[in-house]
């Protein structure tokens, strides 16, 4: 469970016309729901309805957070193989085309030693075909 959750301004519209005491109960139950605790005012129809409006948003935010944590534990975004970068450069693709193909930034590709080596290999092959 996430240690935080985001309060949205649009939720104020849901509780604006309620008495302050009811607003306090609604906010308390929103926090309890986000924290995974039992709700204290489930039997109050106004509180239950207002919290019901935001449950889906809280659940979605929590799910996205848990996915991010899981991806972080797996090492993040998969890295492009250096041999793939070398092979593409050796085929004659420029850094921009390789960057698009492997989903990396142009500058990242351009600075990689594998790109430089593959590009040099391409130039050597071209020179050999021309008889140099």
Quick gist of this model?
This protein has 132 residues and is mainly alpha-helical. The chain is 69% helix and 0% strand.
Report how far the terminal alpha carbons are from each other: 65 Å
The radius of gyration over CA amounts to: 27 Å
Average pLDDT value? 86
Low confidence ranges: none
Number of strands: 0
The main β sheet shows up as: none
Number of helical stretches of at least 4 residues: 7
Number of domains: 2
Order of helices and strands: HHHHHHH
Helix proportion:
55-70%
Spatial shape: rod-shaped
Structural class: mainly alpha
- What is the beta-strand fraction? under 5%
Descriptive report:
The chain is mainly alpha-helical. The protein has 2 domains: 10-73, no CATH class; 82-129, no CATH class. The chain is built from 7 helices and no strands. It has helices spanning 10-15, 20-35, 45-73, 82-90, 95-102, 106-111, 113-129. It starts with 9 loop residues before the first helix and ends with a helix. The relative contact order is 0.09.
List the helices and strands and how they pair.
Layout: H1 10-15, H2 20-35, H3 45-73, H4 82-90, H5 95-102, H6 106-111, H7 113-129
Helix pairs in contact: 2-3, 4-7
List the main descriptive attributes of the protein structure presented here.
mainly alpha, 2 domains, rod-shaped
